[in-house]
Amino acid sequence: MRVLKAPSNPLLSSLFSLVLSIGGGFLVGGILIFMAGQNPLLAFYAIFYGAFGSLHSLSETLVKSTPILFTSLAVITAFNSGVWNIGAEGQLVLGAIATTGIGLFFGGYPAFVLIPICMVLSFAAGMLWASIPGFLKARLNINEILITVMMNFVALYLLRYLVTGPWRDPTAAEAFTPILSESIYLPKLLPGTRLHFGLLIALLCAFLVFLILYKTPVGYKLRAVGKSPKASKYGGISVSRNFFIAMALSGGLAGLAGMSEIAGIYRRMMEGISAGYGFTAIPVALIAKLHPLGAIPAAVLFAALLVGGDAMQRVAGVPVGIIYAFQALIIIFFVISDYLKEMGK
């Protein structure tokens, strides 16, 4: 029985799933808000207005979507290749550490020199950090999920050591590094807002990842290994080599998220620099159907929920924690829509 006909194009398919997921998630979420004695329409209005209702609100949504997009691209690259990188959080932190080091010790150089160096070194730091579980997976077949999760904690404790020890600002009451050199600051896209050039870098990376995965021999091999390692091996494709490449590229993209947060927003390093973006990236990537371009609207959606949630609590009196229920409902309805599409084939 043909239940539902979905677009055959991968990007359109991911957008189709996203629309169904949002609709279903907000429908059930609205019922939950109503049962709690609150006005769901007012809550929805507050979320939308808080995320998109003014130039400042829109800019904050795009600011939040930037690291989410970077880390979701990291997850998409790995998952498409059959490796489960759950370590984007730690790889983001390594990118932030690399950028902070450049800003602290090489700040005397001009911006046109330091900003590209920060991008390259943050990518390299995330790539090297991810290469450890990549190597263990490729050579020893050690479960990458376990290793990447453990390495998240190692990265977070390394960050804590630096901001409470050798890199701590002695004049600050809390554990911060000194303010970094202006030469590493990413240019602002809109005066008077926090929106910075990192958004354009993230969008460019989305298109580059799309081109690599779908338009190059390297991407073909990565996706082939992700679909069927055994068939790829019989076809002459090195499975272990492509596992390693995928994990390294994935870590590099997550490292760029750390660079964008340090050079674009905080301009100093502190604990809690990531706010869980590496973990948020996983549902974003799944909702995007592991398509790099589909990650763009999915990242904006999750960023809008985070930004709009604060406005919802102020205006409608609905606790901001309900936003996480919305995220879970959207994921559930994504799975349902995917199932319906399979039935419709």
What does this structure look like?
This protein is mainly alpha-helical and 345 residues long. The chain has helices at residues 10-35, 40-52, 55-80, 88-105, 111-140, 144-164, 198-215, 217-227, 229-234, 239-266, 277-287, 295-316, 322-344. The chain has one domain: ABC transporter involved in vitamin B12 uptake, BtuC. It is built from 13 helices and no strands. α2 (40-52) packs across α3 (55-80) and α4 (88-105) runs antiparallel to α5. The mean pLDDT is 91.
Could you name the key traits of this structure?
mainly alpha, globular, 345 residues, 13 helices, single chain
Summarize the SSE layout with pairings.
Blueprint: H1 10-35, H2 40-52, H3 55-80, H4 88-105, H5 111-140, H6 144-164, H7 198-215, H8 217-227, H9 229-234, H10 239-266, H11 277-287, H12 295-316, H13 322-344
Helix pairs in contact: 1-2, 1-13, 2-3, 2-12, 3-7, 3-10, 3-11, 3-12, 4-5, 4-6, 4-10, 4-11, 5-6, 5-10, 7-8, 7-10, 11-12, 12-13
